Amino acid sequence: MDPLTQGLLGASVPQSLTKKQHIVVAGVLGALAGMAPDLDVLIRSSSDPLLFLEFHRQFTHSLLFIPIGSFICALVLHWLIAKPRGLSFKQSWGFCALGYGTHGLLDSCTSYGTQLFWPLTSERFAWNTISVIDPAFTLPILILLVFATLKRNPLLARIALLWGLIYLTLGVVQRDRAEASAWQLVNERQHTPLRLEAKPTFANILLWKVIYETEDKYYVDAIRLGASVKTYSGESIDKLNVTKDFPWLDPNSQQAKDIKRFRQFSNGFLAQDPADKLKIIDVRYSMVPNEIRALWSIKLSHEADASAHVEYTTHRDSAPESRQGFLRMLTDF
């Protein structure tokens, strides 16, 4: 999720549980600790472009790291914020732990993937219930927490937290509806998927991207879930076959290892870019949900030596026709 939402949810929990005289400092500590796990984006390498993919949403987001991460936050924030206002270090640590603990769980509600139980497992959990940015989720929490802080009223913070839980639950209901509709579409096509997933599109839980995998292809479609269900049939693409698509690639080279790393990050949803045969795309994301137009990719090189890394590229699909296509589906106009 975006930092603002992470901070707000992080503030809502300690504010819900504290006394009114501590609601301001509890909110500040919870908000800052709630955003802190995303400092892992600073773990980067100028020589290894995929390093940040491995560490983002890894150890700092693990449920097992909450005591350590919140303790580090408390060490910094107690002396700057809490101690001058009469709180003990134990109270500061508690508020930071409550805020920090919300981060990994909220990120797991998105479709990006979060290593919730690192180092026990490197599995990325993605419950696909909310977009990484969703104003309908964030704005009510923001408004309620502002009034909770101004009025020193923990009840309003509890209502904000309740709204968050209700919205995430609604996301689960919508995801299940999208998957059920997708299975109907699959049956009509007489396909036999190996797996099928539905993901919310940007900033809403009304329009969903559905992706399913067969023996040799990925298929993407869009499904709008209002009072009625509307399906927008989409595109398909061949699954990545490294041996077939890159017969020249040394399997022991760093580029081959980087493909495996990118595959783990992308949960296996990889394909060769039809427009550039040296690119490998993550099929999961696109601006228009029934299209295969990746938001990021890696690029190989024939000339690279055995120790050279791939090139990582992001693609911002800001074309007017893409925005209009997305809005047409979202609004059903």
TrEMBL record:
Instruction: Establish whether keyword Transmembrane helix is in the entry.
Output: yes
Under the heading Pfam families, the entry gives: YdjM (PF04307)
- Coiled-coil stretches noted in the UniProt entry, renumbered to this chain: none
Determine if Transmembrane is one of this entry's keywords: yes
Give the UniProt keywords, A-Z.
Membrane, Transmembrane, Transmembrane helix
Question: Which InterPro entries would you find in this protein's record?
Answer: Transcription_regulator (IPR053170), YdjM-like (IPR007404)
Transmembrane spans:
63-81, 125-148, 155-173
Q: What is this protein called?
A: Metal-dependent hydrolase
Query: Which species is this record about?
Result: Vibrio superstes NBRC 103154
